[in-house]
Amino acid sequence: MKGLLLELSSVLHGLVAGGLSQCYADNLSFSPVLYTGPSQVQFTSCASQADGPRVFPINATTFDWWYFDAVSDDGTQALTVIFFTSSYIGFSFDLLNAVDPLNVYVFANTGSGPGISFPIAATSVTVATNGNGATGDWKGSGISFQGAPDLSTYTVTFQKTALNLGIEGTFKLKTRGPGHYVCGPLEGGQPEEVLPHIGWVNVMPAADAQVDIKILGKSLKFSGNGYHDKRLTNAVAIQNWGDVPFTSALHSWYWGHGTFGDYNIVFFDMLDPSNKEKVGGYVLKDGKVVGSTCTSGLQVRPVGTTYPPTLLTANPTQLTINMTLNDGSILDAIVTERATQIDIGLYTRWIGSIEGTVNGVTAQGSALWEQFKVQA
Ligand SMILES: *[C@@H]1O[C@H](CO)[C@@H](O)[C@H](O)[C@H]1NC(C)=O
Ligand SMILES: *[C@@H]1O[C@H](CO)[C@@H](O)[C@H](O)[C@H]1NC(C)=O
Ligand SMILES: *[C@@H]1O[C@H](CO)[C@@H](O)[C@H](O)[C@H]1NC(C)=O
């Protein structure tokens, strides 16, 4: 009974008294002990707290994570950092080994050799929101992020601890333009689902990135193109979920971001469980939104391999992205792999170059993209 009361009080503590029912207190603490009842899950945005938690407290079937990445201008080096208040039952990059629900997953390409990736456990987590920004401390891991209230900057800091012997240094992001929800700007009342039960908010669609870290004894220092979003799933609402519930919510998925010339693009093109295509594209030019769609006018396709991708077909080394911008002009781009960051069969993330053309002007740059394929 005492345990139940404590759990109830922790849930109530997480909600803003008298506020919108789906909004949260501005400072939440997460324990690695999974809550045994229904979590509060938010799929409609609050007036602020764009980068705030969407699941509280965490239980065995809900997943909430903060994603940061940067790729060097030449497309050969990269760092991705994902902060999870999530369950190992669901979204794990290491399908064979359980990971603590509170963890930071680090992926790096140092420019030579295969991609490096490992999780670092945290003993508890606090996330404080201020304006639209958030500051998160994955205690014990030595890894934290600090966001500005207006989302203009983020800093990820890595310190060595007993649980983190592998990575130290800093990763800084300075935004290049406004963030967005799936179909609209960062304001209250926006739907957050990209597919049923999968939420997404792209708080930093493109950023100047500075990475200066040491990882497993190797130095990784570059400037380039950064990105930050946060994602969540409520897997129990997805039918037939099993060991990897995230994947039962979709059949295939291409997602990525690239920078060429004055343009920054974020794109996704996915198939839901009924094979219905769902697309999204967002383009900044010199910090202004010049392309934005959540319904049509964008297509991502693999070059030289079958579409949709399946577990039995080869992975593409290139993707084409074709999008109609807000003024009717066409953005045509092709990304070409330079390195794999992580490949676990059903999920792959690559880095490389992008060549993009708008209104007859072609420019080169770098990109990072991922593929999910779940069907045989
Ligand atoms: C959030 O709460 C934690 C634990 O109560 C505290 O240590 C931390 O300083 C708070 N953070 C902010 C930014 O208020
Ligand atoms: C976790 O919370 C979600 C959302 O409230 C709920 O649908 C689900 O049943 C909960 N899972 C467990 C194992 O209690
Ligand atoms: C899409 O973009 C690619 C890369 O620029 C280009 O080769 C292709 O012709 C475009 N496809 C369409 C249908 O315009």
UniProtKB/TrEMBL annotation:
<dbReference type="Pfam" id="PF24137">
    <property type="entry name" value="DA_N"/>
</dbReference>
<feature type="signal peptide">
    <location>
        <begin position="1"/>
        <end position="21"/>
    </location>
</feature>
<dbReference type="InterPro" id="IPR056402">
    <property type="entry name" value="DA_N"/>
</dbReference>
<feature type="domain" description="AsqO/PenF-like C-terminal">
    <location>
        <begin position="248"/>
        <end position="373"/>
    </location>
</feature>
<keyword id="KW-0732">Signal</keyword>
<feature type="domain" description="Diels-Alderase N-terminal">
    <location>
        <begin position="26"/>
        <end position="230"/>
    </location>
</feature>
<protein>
    <recommendedName>
        <fullName>AttH domain-containing protein</fullName>
    </recommendedName>
</protein>
<dbReference type="InterPro" id="IPR057722">
    <property type="entry name" value="AsqO/PenF-like_C"/>
</dbReference>
<dbReference type="Pfam" id="PF25581">
    <property type="entry name" value="AsqO_C"/>
</dbReference>
